[in-house]
Amino acid sequence: MKKGQHLFIFNLIILLMIAPCAVATTLTLQIVQVDKIHSDVTDSSLLIEESIFDYLFSKGYIVTSSPVATDLENSNSSYALAVNDARSSSVDFLIYTKVFFDAENSTDPDGNLLQNIDSVQWQLIRISDNKQIASGKQSPKIINSEDNTAKGISQFGVQIAGSICSSLGRK
After folding, report:
1. Are 76 and 95 a contacting pair, CB within 8 Å?
2. DSSP at 115
3. Where is 14: in which H helix or E strand?
4. Range with the lowest mean pLDDT among 5-19, 96-110, 133-147?
């Protein structure tokens, strides 16, 4: 092969590697912990965030996230902040997710127990026009004691991510 052909093939390979990134959908994830007894972010909220983030990334999305926020009064101020952050980041979609805890009667309110999570609500917002294109609410199902662990919380996060992904047109 001639020197020019090597350069052409090299450039073609680089182009093929970069091209998918040019058309990839960009997402930002905001998790808000709504918990009456914890003012600090819990490990359970971080597990939900990590599971959703990893799932979406594995499906080919470019994903960013903001630090998990706490919302003791379940106000909407975290929503406005998340939308503004997403707009300034030039992402395509915001996944605004609230994790509602109910651990007041739990035997281990500080533990990574699936039973301490009441539900998760999410909204998929298209940033270009601030339009909600999908939303959902899921409550965890504890089938056996193995579900009531950190692994069960992670699996619940994957279920939520699957629903979000379906709304984006991928499974």
Report:
1. no
2. G
3. helix 3-23
4. 5-19
Contact 140, 152 (CB under 8 A): yes
Task: Give the pair of three-digit tokens for residue 139.
Answer: 């409550």
Measured between alpha carbons, how far is 123 from 125 in angstroms, rounded to an integer?
6
Neighbouring C-beta atoms of residue 82, cutoff 10 Å: 23
Rounded CA-CA distance 36/38 in Å is 6
What is the pLDDT at residue 71? 81
Which stretches of 101-169 are DSSP H helices? 150-167
Contacts of the segment 40-46: beta carbons below 8 A, 24+ positions apart: 40/70, 41/67, 41/68, 41/69, 41/70, 42/101, 42/110, 43/112, 43/150, 44/99, 44/101, 44/112, 44/113, 44/116, 44/117, 44/150, 44/153, 45/99
Q: What residues pair up with 62 in beta bridges, in sequence order?
A: 26
What is the bridge-based pairing of β-strands 62-65 and 69-70?
A: unpaired
| Measured CA angle at 52 (ends 49, 55), to 5 deg | 140
